[in-house]
Structure formats: structure tokens, C-alpha cells
Design a protein that fits this description.
The complex is a heterodimer of chains A (173) and B (280). Chain A has 173 residues and is an all-alpha fold. Helices cover 71% and strands 0% of the residues of chain A. Chain B has helices spanning 2-6, 16-19, 21-39, 46-73, 82-106, 117-142, and strands at residues 161-164, 174-177, 189-194, 197-204, 207-212, 226-228, 231-233, 240-242, 248-250, 259-265, 268-273. Classes of the chains: A mainly alpha (173), B alpha+beta (280).
């Protein structure tokens, strides 16, 4: 169990795992929307319908691992920190987005092999899912770039040595 | 200012790490289609799908490169992350070049049932280099804090560390003149190293203050911090210190900063190091 938790934190990699994995859904689902719009505008035909379908599948597969890794990172944040609440919204939104794309995929299974243009409801779900995803991803980015979550978590010994060599006051180890 | 926009300051989030999701995801998708075409050659469309995913990935890679270059130029020249950043930049250029060639090779084979060896190998090499490069990019953020908290700052960060040697000590300590401090603008900083001691010199309310460069929490760079009143805020985890006393005014840091005396002697501004400081 402990080994699984450490795996999800990315210690073995020297890099948090969640921000690596999220590249896939973050690219696939807006990508699916682009392919949907192209098919809607009669560009690419069935190739775009298929691309959109597989993009949603690939995004969902990656999110199966990205979600537990993200929950793991979030559980390490103290509850009184502002980043805890942002992380909570980020998590709720992401779960909602994953659910929307799972429904979206379900609606496409029957038709994606032959259809030359995307249907109305799946297109709307792609638009809604992408919009929420961008909002949620922005919150995720805020956790890193404004609150420094996971920043210098694995490199703190390196920085301590640099600070020590630079004559800084240091906390006790 | 264009640079501020490319650094994502109005958005309060760097642009490059947002945009790179697309080439990474799409190049992977393209590679999955290639693999699928080898396993299911009866499905006629996979080679074409791979091409379109790669094309969109390449377009987004070029878009992401622009703010990436700008972020690179903002890293201090002697920053430990600078070499990682250079490697990340060169690798990414190679990856984009490889995918450009790859697209050219594929454009005449869109109706093939399965991907040919040449473009498949190009994709395989591209994916491997992309993984390595993406990993380095992540290390820049999570190890070296590049781009973290940068949007909070009003002034550009110091380009270099100024290295000074300690002259012969006088009766009351060692006075080290710092020429560059004369031209500092409000809230601008210098990163100065004097005989191994690394400090930030900042101008606030037209006065100069000097304090240790490293935050006492996880040792973030205070010369790249944000100033509010007489407080400096660490760009990484937002610890605050009073620059006049070095005292912590807001956590997570618990230990106060070391501060240094700024003096003016014979028309020169400098740091007065305490007695007992060894000269070089």
C-alpha cells in the first residue's frame, strides 16, 4: 500500500506524477472538440469523427491514473492553506469533466464508425466538458504557479545545500 | 508590454506550460494510431488519423515554442536550472524538426493500411525525445521553481549574480561598495555574492535593504520575490519577511532572514559586513 502511495506521488521519478499524466486528457478532450468542429464544418468527414472518439478514449484512460495521483498530492496539503480549497474545486470539476466525457463517449459508440459529422448532443457535451476542463486546469496551474504546491518538494535537499553554501540562516533539519 | 503577455502575467499563469499539453498529448495519440495500424492493418484509416493528430500537435508545438523562448530568456544566467532549460530547449527543437520531417514523409502515404518503417521509427524517436524533454521541463518547474510565482512580481528579475571580493577589513567591519546599487529602480533587486555570502539588495521607498537570498522555508529566491510595503514575499510558497529586520511576517517559513547593513561612504553605496569577516 505504501509503495502504491509513493508511486502515485512520483517519488520514484523525482517529479510529481499527476502533472505529467494530465497532459493526456488536457490535450485529448479539447482536441476532440476541435475534431468535432472540423467534422461539423464538413472538413475531414469520418476521419474527424473517429479521431474525436479515440481522443476521448485515450483521455479517459489516462485520467484513470491521473485522478488517484492527483488525490494523493491533494491529501498532502494542510487544510488551512488556500491551496486546499482550490484543490477541492479542482478535483470536483475534474471528476465532473471525466463523467461528462464518459457519457459523451457512450453516445458515440454506436455511430462513430460510419458517421461523417458529429451529432448535436455529443458536440454540446464536448463544448461543456472542454470549458469546464479549462477552468479546472487553470485552478490546477494556480496551485503550482501561485501556491507552489509540489515545488521544491523533492529538491529541497539540493536547495538547502545551495542556501547553506550561500551563508543563509537555515531552519533545523 | 509584449513580454509580460508572453509570460502570461495578465493571466497570472505562465503560458508555455499550458500550451505544451497539446503537442505532448497529440504526438502520443498519433503514435497510438501508428501502433494500432500495425496491429489492425485491415482498418484502412489509422495511418490518416495518425497524420492529422501529428499535424495538430506540430502546429501547437510551434505555438508553445514562442512563450517558451521568452521564459528561457528570463532565467538568471547562473541559475542551476539554466542548463536544464538549455537542454529542454534544444531537445524540443530537435523534436519539432523530427515531426516536421515525419509529416513530410507521411503526406504521400495517407492511404496505406499500415504505417511504414521509416515514419514509424521517426515517431518512436520523436516520442522518446519528447518524454525526456517533457521530463526536463517538469523538473524546471518542480525542482527549480522556474515560472513559479513570477506573475506576482512587478520588476524583471536579476539577469546575473554580481560577484565581489572582500577587501581588507577596517576598524568597524568590512565595507564593500556596490556600484550597481546606485542605479536600482523602486522594487528592483540585485543578487550579490560577497566572499561566498549570497544576498538580495532591494530598493524600497527609495531606501536600500540587503538580506539573505534564500527563503528559510524551501530556500526559494528572494531576489525574484514580490515586494509589498517593507515586506518581501518568496515566489515559491509565499512566506513573507520584513526586509528591515529579517523577521518572518507570514509562514510557512519559521526562521528569520539574515540581514546586512547598507551604508553610504565617500559617495558610494555598499554593504557593511560585520567585524571578523575574512578577506579574500
Amino acid at each position: 500500500m505504501n509503495r502504491l502511495l509513493n508511486f502515485l506521488k512520483g517519488k520514484w521519478l523525482g517529479h510529481p506524477l499527476h502533472p505529467i499524466l494530465v497532459h493526456v486528457p488536457m490535450a485529448m478532450w479539447p482536441g476532440a472538440l476541435i475534431f468535432d468542429l472540423l467534422s461539423k464544418w464538413q472538413i475531414g468527414g469520418n476521419a474527424m469523427v473517429r479521431l474525436s472518439f479515440y481522443a476521448i478514449v485515450f483521455g479517459l484512460l489516462a485520467s484513470l491514473l491521473a485522478i488517484p495521483a492527483g488525490v494523493m498530492d491533494w491529501s498532502g496539503i494542510k487544510k488551512e492553506k488556500p491551496a486546499w480549497k482550490i484543490g477541492l474545486y479542482h478535483m470536483i470539476l475534474n471528476l465532473l469533466v471525466a463523467l461528462l466525457f464518459a457519457i459523451n463517449l457512450g453516445l458515440r459508440v454506436q455511430t462513430f464508425r460510419e458517421a461523417t459529422t458529429v451529432a448535436g448532443v455529443p458536440l454540446l457535451l464536448s463544448i461543456l466538458g472542454t470549458a469546464l476542463l479549462i477552468g479546472s486546469a487553470y485552478l490546477g496551474g494556480m496551485m503550482t504557479y501561485t501556491y507552489g504546491i509540489s515545488v521544491a518538494r523533492m529538491s529541497k535537499d539540493k536547495w538547502r545545500k545551495i542556501a547553506e553554501a550561500g551563508g543563509a540562516n537555515l531552519p533545523l533539519e | 508590454m509584449v513580454k509580460d503577455y508572453l509570460e502570461g502575467k495578465p493571466l497570472r499563469h505562465p503560458l508555455h506550460p499550458m500550451l505544451v499539453h497539446f503537442p505532448i498529448g497529440l504526438f502520443f495519440l498519433s503514435f497510438l494510431f501508428d501502433l494500432a495500424s500495425l496491429v489492425f492493418p485491415s482498418q484502412m484509416y489509422l495511418v490518416r488519423d495518425s497524420f492529422y493528430a501529428m499535424l495538430l500537435g506540430a502546429i501547437m508545438a510551434l505555438v508553445a515554442a514562442v512563450p517558451g523562448f521568452v521564459d528561457y530568456t528570463d532565467i538568471r544566467n547562473d541559475h542551476p536550472g539554466k542548463r536544464t532549460a538549455t537542454a529542454h530547449l534544444i531537445l524540443n527543437l530537435i523534436v519539432v524538426g523530427l515531426y516536421g520531417i515525419n509529416l513530410g514523409v507521411r503526406s504521400s502515404m495517407l492511404s496505406d493500411p499500415r504505417i511504414r518503417t521509416g515514419p514509424f521509427v521517426l515517431s518512436l524517436v520523436g516520442i522518446c525525445l519528447l518524454c525526456a524533454s517533457g521530463y526536463l521541463g517538469g523538473r524546471l518547474v518542480y525542482d527549480d521553481g522556474i515560472g513559479v510565482g513570477r506573475h506576482k512580481r512587478h520588476m524583471p528579475p536579476p539577469r546575473d549574480t554580481i560577484h565581489l571580493t572582500v577587501p581588507i577589513p577596517g576598524a568597524d567591519g568590512v565595507f564593500v561598495p556596490i556600484m550597481a546599487a546606485q542605479q536600482l529602480r523602486e522594487r528592483e533587486t540585485l543578487r550579490v555574492e560577497i566572499g561566498g555570502q549570497i544576498m538580495t539588495i532591494a530598493k524600497i521607498e527609495n531606501q536600500l535593504f540587503a538580506f539573505q537570498e534564500f527563503c528559510t522555508h524551501r530556500f526559494g529566491p528572494l531576489s525574484e520575490g514580490k515586494f509589498e510595503g517593507f515586506n518581501v514575499q518568496c515566489p515559491w510558497h509565499n512566506s513573507c519577511f520584513d526586509v528591515r529586520t529579517g523577521k518572518v511576517t507570514n509562514g510557512p517559513a519559521k526562521v528569520d532572514l539574515k540581514i546586512f547593513k547598507v551604508e553610504r561612504r565617500e559617495g558610494k553605496v555598499g554593504i557593511l559586513l560585520p567585524r571578523g569577516t575574512k578577506s579574500a
